[in-house]
Amino acid sequence: MTPEERIVALGFVLPEAPVPVANYVPYRFAGRFLYLSGQGPKRADGTYRPGRLGRDATVEEAYEDARLTGLNLLAIAKSALGELSRIEAVVKLLGMVNAEPDFSDHPKVINGCSDLLVDVLGEAGRHARSAVGMGSLPNRMTVEIEAILLVRD
User: Which of 129, 137, 112 is nearest to 61 (CA)?
Assistant: First the structure.
């Protein structure tokens, strides 16, 4: 089964690749590495769930947001590679959580993206990762995640 078929089997739809909203590119190749710019949980209607963990968003809501962010990252990877089967490995994720200073469940939130990548890509989806708290994020979104992928020629 291809990664695209796994996405459908899991009940998800691969969205259109998000378009940059500022002066940056959505991805950049460096040899066999594909660097994906930070993405958020942009919904099909263009909105984001606003919220700050520990105040007005739950871990469960933000987990779903991180999963949607993972789908947005995969959409960008597909636009760069043509097919997701070219991903040899997800090397690293940086997961940023919009959180109150005393919030401590950042890893549980970013697991939404990590779990999705393993479900879609199998062992190639396992990765090194950082999950950190931020004082704010663009659009007041709950999470932003960037990725580094190793790709097949």
Answer: 112
